[in-house]
Amino acid sequence: MAQAAAVAKPPAPPRRRRASATPRRLPYLLIAPAALLMLGFIAYPVISVFYYSLQNYNPTKPWRNGYAGFDNFTKIFTDDPAFWDTLTFSAKWVFVEVGLQLLFGLALALIVNQTFVGRALGRAMVFSPWAVSGVLTSAIWVLLYNSQTGITRYLADLGIGSYGTSWLSDTSTVFPAAIVADLWRGVPFFAILILADLQSVSKDLYEAAEVDGASRLKQFWHITLPHLKDAIVLSTLLRAVWEFNNVDLLYTLTGGGPAGETTTLPLYIANTSVDAHNFGYASALTTVAFVILLFCSMVYLRLSKFGGEDK
Amino acid sequence: MSEARTSPPSPRPKAGQRAWDDVPRWQIYLPLSIYLLFTLIPFYWILLFALRPTGSTSLVPWPMTFAHFEKVWTEREFGTYFQNSVLVGVATLVMTTLVALAGGYALARFDFRIKRAFMLGLLCSQFVPGALLLVPLFEIFAKIQMINSLGSVIIAETVFQLPLSIILISNFIKNVPPSLEEAAWVDGCNRLTAFRIVVLPLLRPGLIAVGSFAFVHSWNHFLFALMFLNNPEKQTIPVGLNTLMGADSVDLGALAAGGIIAAVPVVLVFAFIQKWLITGFSAGAVKG
Prior knowledge:
heterodimer, A: 311 residues, mainly alpha, MetI-like fold, two-stranded antiparallel sheet, 67% helix, globular, disordered N terminus, B: 288 residues, 0% strand, transmembrane helix (chain A), cell membrane (chain A), transmembrane (chain A), transport (chain A)
């Protein structure tokens, strides 16, 4: 790309800014490290995933390796109930988790945006789980949910739940238990992003609304929410993608169990490739997951009219 | 660096919030207290388990013991894990910040032919799940002989931090008026000096946000280290924690102590950056 830049070197017409010596190559040099890293460690792996998805590729069974055509894909859609189960669970997981995170995050941001005594400390404390994630969150909640010594025991005293069962090993409680654990670290993320955007709402708008006698609810509905829209759309999308892709928490918290009850599609893929060494099939699953993710994101951005009319 | 701020509107004039400030106090303190309980009980719980002797069911960590910490630090190799994690975290921070700074500057200040393609690549890469690229990444690192070297994890973490970091930093740089730089050029600075003297100080909140993000993410992230490092001496803290979690015979005291060792650096980083984080995001994150 640097060559392309060198060829098209114009006789430097007087330009408005950048009058100082600016070699045409500079921007290319500046993005080169990022571009090379991403080409090598994202683009190339993505392409090889597509390639492997058409192969039988299993290092433990090399005699069966070779071109497989669309066999892997046919199997996914016609002969793999686990795929549909994990996909359904992924959808449920992302939908509930991100929905609740957004709701609580918005509420929390509105609260800590107020001026009150102890605000700085309050903010620091409610945001702190953001820094803690994945495995550490799991470790903490494994302690809390422990059937013998966890907080579940004390909750049983209050009539919530029953003694001696771990919420993580019971199929009826594992989903809400995992949701709560993930909410603990996810809500602060939303709250931080939304709070950041809240601070840029012009205060004049509220004062004008106040003069016009608009209630607080109306102010929220007509001023705050529209202003936050882009931030909400963007953070929801990012979070949904991350929640879908993230394997750390469920892998360590439940291991996908009990009985596959909490296996997301990426977790299933990780198991297929790492434990079963079925790289070809895992790659096909990856391709499908990638397409689903991309498609959902497009639909979401379209539906939410991201950026409004000006873009 | 009080002369200029990266965010155009001055941060919260005292009287400005009036419309929202007449909220009854209980509507602030009640929900906040409930949420604080939810936030803090897990922290307390892990502290409790880490500090009280095995077998104790007391709800206060008294008598206090540091036996769990000693055990985890020496017998369970957390000393080594800790070193490795620090190395990975700091290296990821430095690489991400430098590479993103260069890329972000290019995006903010230049028009060039592949700019749109580059930005599209950044966006698309957000949809590429790191976990799903484990196999090809493993093969690449095997090919360049970096399996079992912390370098593989550092590279992988950096690469997956880059897209967002570049976008953030370029938004920050866009908020710095180009005229400031131009003034420095007129005064005889070259581009690099002008950037260092004029722009860089104004980017501090943004760089802190981006750098801390990179550090915290790589500190917490688990899967790359799990896959690319087989040698226990090269492992990082999250992997160590995971082995502690094991199956049924969990040593809860050790797990809690390990968890605290894992939490301390990120919580410290977080406490330090907290006030920059909000300004950082409001200037860089959400405005395209």
